[in-house]
Amino acid sequence: MMKKIIAVAAFLLCSTAAQAGIVMGGTRVIYQEGKREAAISVTNADTHTPYLVQSWVENYAENDKSKVPFIVTPPLFRLDPEQNNVLRINFIGASLPGDRESVFWLNVKSISPTPQGEVNKLQVNIKSKFKIFYRPNGLAGDPAKAWQQLKFTQSGGHLTVANPTPYFVSFYSVAVGGQSIDEPGMVAPFGQKTWPVSGHGAVKWRAINDYGGVSDFAQQ
Fold first, then answer.
1. Cβ-contact 177, 199 below 8 angstroms
2. Segment 4-57, tens digit of pLDDT
3. Quick one: which of 25, 51, 136, 179 has the most CB atoms within 10 Å?
4. Mind listing the domains of the chain with CATH numbers?
5. Distance (Å, rounded) from C-alpha 20 to C-alpha 128?
6. What residue spans of the chain are helical by DSSP H?
7. How far apart are CA 168 and CA 103, in angstroms?
8. Using one digit for the tens of pLDDT, what is the confidence trace for 58-93?
9. How far apart are the first and last CA of the chain?
10. Which sign, positive or negative, has the C-alpha torsion 29, 34, 37, 39?
11. Radius of gyration of the chain from Cα atoms?
């Protein structure tokens, strides 16, 4: 039993180290229509371990099997200790909806090497996902203020938010009557999202902006 506990602890420590090694230069990517590319930096913060970094873009919905309109370069590269590189995201597909944002996933996998001569050691792969927001030109309103325009309604043990803007709004927190909603997610342009709630009262929320920062509280 003790050996099993030690093995699990060692795995967790190894995973944490690998995750801490690769640092991304943002939590999301905004791809403005007409731009040649969008870019995000990748840094190996580890002082000893090199990593193999693999990246690709996939559709946001798991059941969406349509061709992804983005490529990432370089798709696979070695990143030595305390070095950095830049992922460049290029749009190569047909036109996307022009009246609202579209969202995709940027996947970044970091692979640590197996130490030479230690074939029984576990090789750790860490995969992270970052949202890519494709933003058409000419959308109405200010994306930095979209979170302030949300409308909340409560009925029958449910809270519903309506987004009247052409922008995605990613929530940092949502609370009803002082009770927080776990993992509130985001609401799509011109869309709605509903959560089951046990409380009733004032709704307070905060949103995540284009730079990964958190807004002030809004209340309704």
1. yes
2. 333 333 333 333 333 458 999 999 999 999 999 999 999 999 999 999 999 999
3. 51
4. 2-135 (2.60.40.10), 143-219 (2.60.40.10)
5. 12
6. 2-21
7. 8
8. 999 999 999 999 999 999 999 999 999 999 999 998
9. 53
10. negative
11. 21
